[in-house]
Design goal:
The protein is α/β, with parallel strands linked by helices. The chain is 26% helix and 19% strand. Helix 3 packs across helix 13 and helix 7 runs antiparallel to helix 15.
């Protein structure tokens, strides 16, 4: 997974701490924002019922309704004791840590929490809890679910009704697990494609986002008589506001747009979502002119609630309130008073509960604000029928295994794949391919369902899956093989492109590896996962005279002119999800040689002609894309593209979150060793040692390729350390706030004879004992994992990553990187 990417001056800037404006945010003018008219009207009887409940509730009961912990940090008895209003399962959070957990496993677990919420032993008003999940491209956290194309592909389809049907199918699969609430749709209008969440956006065009906002909300929630019935779930429009327009495309960064742009571009989806009846809105991590959105009362309350007319609940994002100046994860009245109704507080919810009770009692949080938040929570629960439903396992559809990956849902997903494909080039009419011929299928993406499903799939980053994790799904190769076999021809899978008999045509599938936020941010819009390999393969096939089709898997438009030039046809497949046969439906002709389906997809993002060409958006001055917004060829209207200009690409090194790879530091880190006499000795040769008695000797060795790892041997005569250092701190505040772990891929050659310490931070790093993790049998590669949260604030600005000991020890290290934390990750104990 840890492939190569770019490090440039631009990357150094993107990794630095955000340079928020010193001046206060511009004055907001709510009267200039549009109003919306939700089809869901206030019910006087319902409001009276809420009044009656509020009158009976204690401060403690009310505060509990405003907290949403993550399932790993709470047990049913906590729900009973603290009157918790809702729980979520974060990305990759599954019953028992088993990502293959059955529907029954999920229901048994959720039932336990639900039963606690309505247990009379609570001693208060009976208020059932809700369960929320990030079902962002299908019920993607659940084994066997249908996985639809990510939003960027749906934007290319230009089909709001398709989006509505996807929402409806997703809602049914969510209901099969007894859940109430989906954190979708994302309504970011991405303007800088370096952002690692670009694929969560439908388009750079706010009109497409607005049309899809209403469609997805209606699909998830239903409308009219079907509104939030047994087939539908609560929808969440996110992330309010401006997350797609941060400076430099930096995740959780600062949006510097003026108010008109914030309203007309970044805010376009929210009135449409409210018009569609959306019941929840999630606030953004990002800022507007230096003010964190979770603290922006003018926008959350003044605009969204008062002007646009949203009467559902605003939920925070994962610990985002803790980023507000003066706040912590366990104490933030600023966010609540600004308009957050439900805190998304995965782990620190007990501290936040105690702080809120205290602050309501002392007046820091006005009782009227607490009552308004709880009223909104109760209103959504009543509208969703939560009070009137039985336990999750007894609800309609609950436990219906057949709904997960149902044939009718997979059919919708397959249709979505077909409609999302964009044909960039088809010189010489290579496509569609004749199924009666011999077709070679190559590239590392051809038979990788992990790659085609992308991030937010069975785990947060989605980069730890194999094909066996997707029963019922079809890889792109699987779809091509079936189509060619049905046509009477022969298909050969060869990832490296090798063959014995020359094929009549070839399809090369390549592109980005899965990522989610943090890990997906880039310094440019070039491809850095197998770019050189894919280009070499395409050129080799071209030199052999094999007509070749390139299929790109990616979460954003990318500069790939060399690959486009080397291929006869080029298809942008985006992140198509679990139904890879949808690609074959368009690329492979019928038995008569005619297309079974034509290309209909059109670019919803402008395509760059240089790796540094971003931001690039239709309508801007000097708009000069390689392929313009709305571009997309068809079989019915062929057009020759011809040779494209090729630009230089910067020197490659590790992607964001990689500190050491292929024997060298990455992202500004350099390898060194040291001791008390000489703290920093650069590793600039194949062998380097500390001075004097050689307390630590470092040698280059081979693991996957020549000299791609370092063997480190401590003599035990004195304290010495192996370090990764950089001249300026690397801002990891976002990663430290998220569920990320620092990982070392290493081999134990001689176990430690005494304590070993791992240090992370600045000039005086925080150290934790890791000797126990380095003991045990020698030989064989293993992974040392330490959650970033274990280092506290030291992990937010990192100059040093250091292993040190005064004992004898020998290890070999090949990779140091940040990866998604796992359920069993724990802080090392002394």
């Amino acid at each position: 997974m840890l492939k190569t990417a770019i490090l440039s001056l631009a990357l150094a800037g993107s990794l630095a701490a955000p340079a928020f404006a010193a001046a206060p945010a511009p004055v907001v003018h709510p009267d200039l924002w549009p109003q919306a008219h939700s089809p869901v009207r206030r019910d006087p009887a319902m409001e009276a019922r809420i009044d009656a409940m509020l009158a009976k509730m204690s401060v403690e009961e009310k505060v509990g309704q405003t907290l949403q912990p993550e399932m790993k940090s709470i047990v049913p008895d906590d729900v009973r004791r603290y009157h918790i209003g809702s729980i979520e399962n974060g990305g990759g959070s599954v019953p028992g840590g088993n990502k293959h957990a059955s529907v029954g496993d999920w229901l048994k677990m959720i039932d336990g929490y639900y039963d606690a919420s309505v247990d009379p032993a609570n001693g208060g008003v009976r208020i059932p809890m809700m369960w929320a999940s990030d079902a962002v491209h299908g019920h993607n956290n659940v084994y066997r679910a249908t996985l639809f194309p990510h939003n960027i592909g749906l934007g290319a389809a230009r089909d709001p009704d398709l989006v509505r049907r996807i929402g409806a199918a997703t809602a049914q699969e969510v209901r099969a697990l007894g859940m109430d609430w989906s954190f979708a749709p994302t309504l970011a209008v991405v303007q800088d494609d370096r952002w690692g969440r670009t694929y969560e956006s439908y388009s750079e065009d706010p009109k497409i986002v607005a049309a899809y906002a209403a469609a997805m909300v209606r699909g998830l929630q239903g409308e009219g008589a079907s509104f939030l019935d047994k087939d539908h779930v609560i929808s969440t429009a996110k992330h309010f506001l401006g997350d797609g327009g941060t400076d430099g495309g930096r995740d959780q960064g600062d949006n510097l747009a003026d108010e008109a742009t914030l309203r007309d571009v970044h805010g376009a989806g929210y009135p449409a979502a409210v018009d569609g009846g959306v019941q929840a809105v999630m606030a953004s991590f990002s800022s507007w002119h230096g003010v964190k959105m979770h603290a922006n009362k003018d926008l959350m309350t003044g605009v969204l609630k008062d002007r646009i007319g949203f009467d559902g609940l605003i939920i925070g994002d994962w610990n985002a309130h803790g980023q507000i100046p003066g706040c912590t994860k366990g104490d933030c009245p600023t966010a609540f008073n600004a308009g957050i109704d439900v805190f998304n507080v995965p782990e620190d919810w007990k501290a936040l509960y105690a702080a809120m009770v205290r602050e309501v009692n002392d007046g820091t949080i006005p009782m009227a604000r607490l009552d308004d938040a709880v009223r909104r929570v109760l209103r959504v629960k009543l509208r969703a029928g939560v009070f009137d439903q039985p336990k999750p396992s007894a609800r309609p559809h609950a436990g219906d295994e057949a709904l997960l990956g149902a044939p009718e849902h997979r059919a919708v997903a397959r249709e979505a794949v077909r409609k999302s494909l964009v044909l960039l080039k088809n010189d010489g009419g290579v496509l569609p391919l004749d199924p009666r011929k011999r077709i070679l299928v190559a590239g590392d993406g051809a038979d990788s369902i992990m790659k085609q499903t992308g991030g937010w799939t069975l785990s947060w980053q989605g980069n730890d899956n194999v094909n066996a994790d997707f029963p019922g799904a079809t890889s792109i190769w699987g779809g091509i093989e079936a189509a060619v076999k049905a046509g009477g021809g022969t298909a050969l899978l060869s990832p490296d492109g090798a063959y014995d008999a020359k094929p009549d045509a070839a399809i090369v599938v390549f592109g980005e590896n899965p990522y989610a936020e943090f890990q997906g941010d880039q310094a440019d819009v070039a491809l850095h996962a197998g770019s050189a390999e894919s280009l070499a393969l395409l050129k080799r096939l071209k030199a052999a005279g094999v007509p070749t089709v390139a299929v790109l898997i990616s979460g954003r438009p990318l500069y790939l002119n060399p690959q486009i030039n080397a291929a006869d046809a080029f298809v942008a497949a985006w992140l198509p999800g679990s139904e890879g046969q949808g690609v074959a439906d368009v690329l492979i002709a019928g038995p008569d040689g005619k297309p079974r389906h034509d290309f209909t997809g059109k670019l919803s993002f402008s395509w760059p002609k240089r790796p540094d060409q971003t931001p690039l958006n239709v309508g801007q001055k000097a708009y000069d894309p390689q392929f313009a917004f709305g571009y997309g060829l068809t079989y019915a209207a062929p057009h020759a593209v011809g040779p494209l200009p090729e630009a230089a690409v910067a020197i490659e090194t590790g992607p964001r979150g990689v500190f050491f790879r292929d024997g060298a530091g990455a992202n500004g880190f350099a390898v060194s060793i040291g001791d008390a006499q000489a703290p920093t000795i650069a590793a600039v040769a194949a062998r380097v040692a500390t001075y004097g008695g050689e307390g630590l000797v470092l040698r280059k060795v081979d693991r996957r390729r020549q000299e791609d790892a370092w063997s480190a041997r401590w003599s035990g005569g004195e304290k010495a350390w192996l370090s990764l250092t950089r001249p300026t701190p690397l801002d990891l505040s976002r990663e430290a706030n998220g569920a990320m772990a620092l990982t070392f891929e290493l081999r134990i050659d001689t176990p430690p004879a005494g304590p070993v310490w791992l240090g992370v931070g600045g000039d005086k790093p925080v150290t934790l004992p890791v000797g126990a993790a380095l003991s045990g049998p020698v030989g064989g590669w293993r992974t040392l994992r330490v959650p970033l949260r274990c280092f506290g604030a030291a992990a937010e600005a990192v100059k040093v990553v250091r292993l040190e000991t005064a004992s004898a020890l020998a290890i070999t290290v090949s990779d140091v990187a940040l990866t998604e934390a796992r359920a069993d990750d724990a802080c090392p104990a002394g």
